[in-house]
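for the recovery benchmark. tokens below, seq after
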């Protein structure tokens, strides 16, 4: 299996180079629209036929555009047409991101510079690599996307790099139970609970209620802003927890299939908190997958039915076994924290493979949390100090 990551670099460019790249972008996107229009009108997304029909005309009209950039645009346009099944015409805005394949740019992560083809020859830029990205210096480099932030007048290069993932080593399974009070409880007796999270979320809940009652336009805008802030905070916590879990001496992480996770059935209707919870559970899973695959570990999902009602010692299933946080088996008398009982059941299902569900491996293009490191520091102290009890 191949592990892929995207690193985001902020380019340092002279004003002249910026102008050149802006022109390159505008022209590239105009040509993208032209090529897409041809494919759409002629009902084809074949790179060969689109190439024959459009290439020479465009070369003649725009000799300043390097031919490998043009080929890249054609490929992207054909892929876009294919993606939309030729039913919709794909359109680019003047400053939409453009793809740079291997042939049209040369990047040196160690010397921290890049040269990009443009309408006026090569443009060189420098960048600084954040500390966190330094682990990727040895990875093979695949393709890049050039993005432009018009408001800030800043160019970013999103560089996709890859390497083969390490061979899986063992088969020790760790069960992970996700919940609201305890964000995660693992079958080796670790509780990831979070008082800071509760405090922060209570603060946001209060703010939200206040703003919702106002109902003005600016209140709604502010509401969206704090929602994003809250999500960023939750992401940070998820990042810390997943990092710690993946570092544990286990090879396979068993987790409940999210689509039927218990919380959904417990509450009626979906409010914001509910949505955030579902999203947070999903994100934690993605982070664990993402970090696990990089070190040759894996994640399996299991059928969540009865994981909270079943006794992890004798296997007796009874609804009344669980009361709130405590689990008390009516058959064998075993007593344990309810979430830990569930985590152990999840581990057993992960080991036996019986409860495993087949899923397609998700793909995350960019570890946004890590990319945001250093930008969003407001709650970082809180996020780093979630409580670990064992
Ligand atoms: Zn029992």
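predicted aa per position
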């Amino acid at each position: 299996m191949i592990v892929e990551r995207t690193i985001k670099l902020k380019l340092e460019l002279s004003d002249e180079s910026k102008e050149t790249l802006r022109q390159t972008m505008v022209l590239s996107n105009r040509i993208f629209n032209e090529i897409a229009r041809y494919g759409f009108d002629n009902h084809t997304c074949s790179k060969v036929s689109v190439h024959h029909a459009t290439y020479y005309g465009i070369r003649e009209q725009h000799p300043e555009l390097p031919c490998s950039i043009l080929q890249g645009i054609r490929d992207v346009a054909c892929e876009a047409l294919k993606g939309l099944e030729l039913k919709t015409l794909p359109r680019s805005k003047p400053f939409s991101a453009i793809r740079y394949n291997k042939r049209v740019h040369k990047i040196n992560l160690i010397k921290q510079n890049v040269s990009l083809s443009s309408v006026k020859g090569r443009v060189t830029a420098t960048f600084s690599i954040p500390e966190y990205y330094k682990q990727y210096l040895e990875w093979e480099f695949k393709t890049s996307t050039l993005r432009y932030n018009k408001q800030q007048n800043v160019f970013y290069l999103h560089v996709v790099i890859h390497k083969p993932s390490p061979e899986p080593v063992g088969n020790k399974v760790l069960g992970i139970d996700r919940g609201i009070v305890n964000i995660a409880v693992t079958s080796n007796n670790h509780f990831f609970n979070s008082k800071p999270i509760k405090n922060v979320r209570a603060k946001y809940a209060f703010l939200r209620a206040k703003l919702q009652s106002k109902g003005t336009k600016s209140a709604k805008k502010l509401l969206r802003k704090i929602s994003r802030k809250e999500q960023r905070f939750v992401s940070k916590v998820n990042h810390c927890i997943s990092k710690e879990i993946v570092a544990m001496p286990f090879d396979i992480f068993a987790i409940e299939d999210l689509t039927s996770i218990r919380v959904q059935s417990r509450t009626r209707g979906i409010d914001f908190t509910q949505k955030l919870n579902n999203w947070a559970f999903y994100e934690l899973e993605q982070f664990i997958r993402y970090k696990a695959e990089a070190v040759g570990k894996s994640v399996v999902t299991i059928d969540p039915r009865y994981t909270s009602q079943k006794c992890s010692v004798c296997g007796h299933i009874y609804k009344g076994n669980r009361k709130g946080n405590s689990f008390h088996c009516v058959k064998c008398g075993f007593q344990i924290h309810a979430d830990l009982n569930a985590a152990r059941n999840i581990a057993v299902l992960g080991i036996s493979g019986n409860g495993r569900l087949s899923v397609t491996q998700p793909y995350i293009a960019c570890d946004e949390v890590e990319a945001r490191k250093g930008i969003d520091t407001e709650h970082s102290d809180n996020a780093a100090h979630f409580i670990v009890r064992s």
